[in-house]
Automatic annotation (TrEMBL):
Pfam families: Fer4. One of its GO terms (molecular function) is 4 iron, 4 sulfur cluster binding. Residues 1-29, 31-64 form the 4Fe-4S ferredoxin-type domain. Keywords: 4Fe-4S, Electron transport, Iron, Iron-sulfur, Metal-binding, Transport. This is YfhL family 4Fe-4S dicluster ferredoxin. InterPro entries: 4Fe4S_Fe-S-bd, 4Fe4S_Fe_S_CS, PSI_iron-sulfur_center, YfhL-like. GO terms for cellular component: cytoplasm.
Amino acid sequence: MALMITDECINCDVCEPECPNNAIYQGLQIYEINPELCTECVGHFDTPQCQEVCPVDCIPIHPQFVESKETLMLKYHQLQKDKVS
């Protein structure tokens, strides 16, 4: 499951630096999450850090990118491998 940022986002800038995978970026109007990079912090933390710091609670699970914890862990390992390469 990747996360997404809804249009309730107030562009407060707190989520982007918290993402260990650099999946969050400034979009045209609000912050966005690249689902290919989002592991919901699996492999890094017990809970998604962007959700923890979001003051308006606008970061739900993205319904088009539903992944199991096992799949997220595989994605995490691949991203870590890609960082080393």
